[in-house]
Structures are given as C-alpha cells and as structure tokens.
Amino acid sequence: MLTGTSASAVCVGSCGTAGANGDITASPLGGTYDYVTTAGGVSGAGSLGVDTETNGSINTTGSFAADAGSVLSFYFNYVTSDGSGFADYGWSQLQTVSGNAVATLFTARTTPSGDTVPGFGLPGLLATLTPGSTPIQIGTGGGGGPVWSGLGGDSGRCFDTGCGYTGWIRADYTIAAAGNYRLAFGVTNWSDTQFASGLAYDGVIVDGNPVPGVPEPGTWAMLIAGFGLVGAAARRRRTAIA
C-alpha cells in the first residue's frame, strides 16, 4: 500500500487538467486527465538537458512508497504542433524524493517519420508500451495540426511534417528497489519557443493504487520575473503550413 512521505506535488511552467477536446480524447480511463505544455512554459523547465532546449514545463507528483517489484503504470499522449527540424519532446522520469533521476521511463519526440518513442538523441525506452508502435497521428487542423486546448494559440496549427499526436499509450515499469519516489512529467521546446507541444497523462498508479495528486492547474512559475529570455534563435518567426 502506498504511504505518503515529505515531498508535495510541484509544477514549474504550465500545467493543467482537461477533458476530451478537439483531437485529444479522454484516456481509456475516461473523465479528465492532466497535462504539461510549452504554451506558457518557462525557460529551462521540462528539459532533460541533452540538446538545445528552450522553454517548457514540468509537473512532479507528490512522493509515494513502493516495494521492489512494484509496477508503476500510467497513460500518456504526446501532442505537437511543431515538425521537421524542430524536435520538441516530452518525457516521464521516476525520481527520488529529492529529485534525483532513478529511471527515465520514456521520451517522445517530434519527428517527420517513424516512431516518436523513444525520442531520437534522448534516453532509451525503459517502460513497456501498449501499443508498442508510436507513430504520429495527423490532426484535423490546418496542415494536419492537432486541435487541442493544451496547445493554447497553436491549437490546430502545424509547422511542418511531424505535427500531430500519438494517441493514448499505456506505460508499465517495474520498480527495482524499495523506496520513496516521485514521478515527473516534462515537455520542452527545441531550438526556439514557437509552435507548442504538450504531454497529456492519466491514471498514475503503483500496484493498482493511485499516487498522490499533482498540483492544481496553473502557471506558477510565470509569476517569477526574468524567465523566458532565450536568445535570438528563439525569437525567429516561423509560419504554419496551411
């Protein structure tokens, strides 16, 4: 049985809760789901620090206890209005209570063709996925862009080939050692801050028990002055395909 420890849920950037809207349905569990998005994200948030990331968001659950051999499960759906050479990505990571990485469970990255998971140039896949194939699905917006409120003003837009969404995918991961943990979900823009991407997720459980809740929706870190300065490359204007 899960027991609480000292760490509370934390959001940095733009995190929210939504129901089915546009191209993004409810998860197989129904009802609402949580998400992180680069729309309203902050500089440096949601990044794994492996590339030229710019702005994004990260949502970390409250802490929970798990036994060796406990199974962590959840659903996720990566959504991106970007494409071509702008390889935004989302991810989930099991962490210690203090925030140190234990295992990066999956990465999903904008790509013109093939599977989005694992993201190219990013940590490999550690979770078992159902379904195992993760190609991007074309949205109903202009140029195949995904229609979804989580993308803010980029809902229904598409920069180039690779925009769309994965659909809901189940991830299962067996925790190797007993301990207290947290689960983080992140998403980041790459190279610039245009054409938002987001990561929806739902049903986080360990051995069938829900983990402590995520933060209330909001954009807490946007209240902090000085975020969002990402240089000249991030200010370049790009145009969506029709």
UniProtKB/TrEMBL annotation:
InterPro entries: Ice-binding_C (IPR013424). Signal peptide: none annotated. Pfam families: PEP-CTERM. It comes from the Bacteria. Residues 214-237 form the Ice-binding protein C-terminal domain. This is PEPxxWA-CTERM sorting domain-containing protein. It comes from Sandarakinorhabdus fusca.
